[in-house]
Amino acid sequence: MSDATGPAALYAMHDALRRELAHLDRVTTSAHHDPRHVLATAPGWQLLKKALHAHQSAADEALWPPLRHRLTGRPRDLVVLAVMEAEHAAIAPVVEAIDATLADPGADALRLGQLTDALAGGLAGHLAHREDAALPLLLRALTAEQWDRFGRVQARRIGRDAPLLLPWLLDGADEPTVATLLAPLPASEYAAYLTRWAPAYALLDRWSAGTAT
After folding, report:
1. What's the confidence (pLDDT) of residue 78?
2. pTM for the complete prediction?
3. Predicted confidence (pLDDT) per residue in 137-190, tens digit
4. pLDDT in tens, 97-109
5. What is the band of 71 on the pLDDT scale with cuts at 50, 70, 90?
6. How many C-beta atoms surround the C-beta of residue 36 within 10 A?
């Protein structure tokens, strides 16, 4: 992964997460479907969770530790990193609470709406803060090898979900971003993306009620 690929992957993931948060808002405010049923049955919620977990856990493993090392002796910048980690840590409990609400037959749609609003607000704020405050530090501090390691860690955490999550990530991305992020793929995976993964993803109705995962 080059110095260009690492930030491109971060921005692509942020854009994809924002796109899905917009779908989540639409689903939970629709008067036509019960949002509890939609989130429990549609693939969109599962894909959002998987992508978010892969991205955040890869950052925990491969972005924040080398950044912290490079920021030694720079207390103001270390405060930025601490805030990033605190914001990140607050996201997972909200996701877990949403899943607990979906599993509770007695939970109502209002509770679910409150939790999804909290997730959307917290995650959107975190992504914006990361881009404004943390990414400039990462661009100055990380080497090409460290960006490459982040890419490998994230790919490992995506693992068997790559046939869905890679097209998910690139859904709506501009041509330069798509080209940049597909370039490192082995020839066999590149061919699979073009001939199988992307076409199958294009047929997936991620956020419709009653769609099986």
Report:
1. 94
2. 0.90
3. 999 999 989 988 888 888 889 889 999 999 999 999 999 999 999 998 999 999
4. 999 999 998 888 8
5. very high
6. 20
Tell how far CA 210 is from the center of its chain: 24
**What does the block give as tokens for 53?**
């977990």
Q: pLDDT higher for 119 or 213? A: 119
CA distances from 79 to 4, 39, 88, 159 (A): 26, 36, 14, 33
Q: Which two tokens stand for residue 207?
A: 């956020």
Q: 118-156 in b/e burial notation, b at 16+ Cβ within 10 A?
A: bbbeebeebbeebeeebeebbeebbeeebbbbbbebbbe
Q: Kindly report the average pLDDT of the chain as a whole number.
A: 89
The domains located in the chain, with CATH, are: 5-202 (1.20.120)
Q: 47 to each of 30, 33, 99, 142, 148, how far by Cα in Å?
A: 20, 20, 14, 29, 24
Q: Which of 131, 149, 193 is nearest to 168 (CA)?
A: 193
- Cα separation of the two ends of the chain: 32
Cα gap 51→61, rounded to integer Å: 15
